[in-house]
Amino acid sequence: MAVIAPVGIRRRGGELAPLSETGHSPAMCEDQNLRPENPTPEGMADIRMRLRLHFGDVLKLGPGKADLLEGIRETGSIAAAGRAMSMSYKRAWSLVEEMNTAFRAPLVQSNRGGAQGGGASLTETGETVLAHYRRLEGIVWQAGHDEIAAIRDLLADTSV
After folding, report:
1. Nearest to 45 by CA among 30, 72, 26, 63
2. Which InterPro entries does UniProt cross-reference here (predicted)?
3. Which residue, 53, 71, 127, 140, has most beta carbons within 10 Å?
């Protein structure tokens, strides 16, 4: 059984990543930029939430791996996706291998270098896993809206 564990605020280069600089559209409960189909509720633009799924000892799937998968889809490269996240190629490759071995079918297909320079793409399973994760983020955000707003309203600093 999967354990859903909310985690802290995402940092980019040691700084909080503003919504406009994350490169994501709304509905990522990770950083909680909400996707267009789940627009940011009024007064919630500065609130972030991260969703991490723990599948026992087999896999932890969270915002970082989801962002890596999206980066691979967008760039066609594990190295470029890792660089965009300030991650070494070795770390990006390690995360891809971890995901590929955890599922029945690989999430990322990679092609060796050569004249064409190699590349990588998401498999059908990779696209499916990423879509389910992103939808779940939106569902969690929407379901928790009232509670999040209530907590926000109790903050001493009301500028959030």
Report:
1. 26
2. LysR_HTH_N, Molybdate_resp_trans_reg, WH-like_DNA-bd_sf, WH_DNA-bd_sf
3. 71
pLDDT tens string 85-94: 999 999 999 9
pTM here?
0.70
Q: Residue ranges of the domains in the chain?
A: 3-145
The CATH architecture to which 3-145 belongs is Orthogonal Bundle (1.10)
- Backbone φ and ψ of 70, nearest 5°: -60, -40
If you average pLDDT over every residue of the chain, what do you get?
78
CA distance 49 to 138: 11
Q: Give the 3-state secondary structure of residue 134.
A: helix
